[in-house]
Write a structure and sequence with these properties.
Blueprint: E1 2-12, H1 19-27, E2 32-40, H2 47-52, E3 59-62, H3 69-79, E4 84-88, E5 92-94, H4 98-109, E6 113-120, H5 126-134, E7 144-145, E8 154-158, H6 174-177, H7 180-190, E9 195-205, H8 211-225, H9 233-256, H10 261-287
Parallel strand pairs: 1-2, 1-4, 2-3, 6-9
Antiparallel strand pairs: 4-8, 5-9, 6-8, 7-9
Length: about 290
């Protein structure tokens, strides 16, 4: 069944490992969107060649340069002319009823933005299991009205009450790779527009980390959550000590729950966190000389 009032888009940068599964999951939806737009943010891997395999079934826009996630979202929302616009990340695979469930629920609840529940797919890998526990991207097994925010990785937007031209902030480093979902959710709440989390709209995170990539991902997550505040030596030491305390707490928790394979992950995350934070401090310090 096709709905001519729904579009879906995927922003992608260097997504060669996951973009094909992502697109196939969209094509297999029980409720078919009218348009499928892939915004290629000037990928330099094999992403473009993979997209060409689907050129008869999707629309492809390639940014002239790497502009960042918020720019790609802004482009998509302003160039899709349907009232309802769904979005998933390039490393996400959606269950075949994901769109149908969200569309039914957004109308029933009168929400402006609704999101589903994302699971990590490859939890046999301890790095992915760690991520599913410590930086999961869902609000649990219960539906929730007006959660703190709707995750940008999977959602459906009703544009009826919005000026699409001013939805996403595109200025500065913060919005190049992160931050847009929290800010956008807060903007909707200030306008007294409803958010909703629907736990039965299932999707899966296809990211498959190793110790280094997970540790760097977690460090970026904390850094962006900190609002990219300027770093001095005191702040850097304070952050490292705070992370050390977290790590001790996690190790005790994992020992108690017999999650022994996560203990080494905790240690790698701490080591890379301290290393990355001091590298940032030294880089900023050198640039001021």
């Amino acid at each position: 069944m096709k709905n001519t009032d729904i579009s879906i888009y995927v922003p992608v940068f260097n997504g060669e490992k996951t973009i094909e599964k992502c697109i196939r999951s969209i094509l297999n939806q029980s409720l078919k969107p009218n348009n499928i737009l892939i915004v290629n943010d000037c990928s330099n891997d094999n992403t473009e060649n993979i997209l060409q395999k689907f050129e008869n079934k999707i629309k492809i826009h390639k940014n002239s340069e790497n502009c960042g996630l918020s720019y790609s979202r802004h482009y998509a929302v302003n160039n899709l002319n349907t009232r309802f616009i769904a979005s998933i990340d390039a490393d996400v695979e959606i269950d075949n009823r994901w769109l149908e469930i969200l569309f039914s629920e957004i109308k029933k609840k009168g929400a402006t933005l609704i999101g589903g529940r994302m699971f990590e797919k490859y939890t046999d890998n301890p790095c992915n299991l760690w991520r599913s526990i410590r930086i999961c991207q869902n609000w649990g097994s219960e539906d929730k009205e007006n959660p703190k925010f709707i995750f940008g990785c999977n959602n459906l937007l009703d544009t009826k009450n919005l000026n699409k031209k001013i939805i996403y902030n595109q200025e500065g480093e913060y919005y190049k790779t992160n931050g847009e979902d929290i800010e956008f959710s807060q903007k909707l709440k200030k306008k007294s527009l409803k958010l909703y989390y629907k736990s039965s709209a299932i999707c899966y995170h296809l990211q498959d980390d190793n110790y280094k990539s997970l540790s760097n991902r977690y460090w970026r997550y904390i850094r962006y959550g900190d609002g990219l505040k300027k770093r001095n030596l005191f702040k850097t030491l304070k952050n490292s000590f705070r992370q050390f305390k977290k790590t001790i707490k996690w190790i005790v928790e994992d020992l108690f729950k017999l999650r022994f394979k996560l203990i080494i992950v905790n240690c790698f995350v701490l080591i890379y966190f301290v290393k990355n934070d001091f590298k940032l401090y030294l880089k900023k310090n050198d640039s001021n000389i």
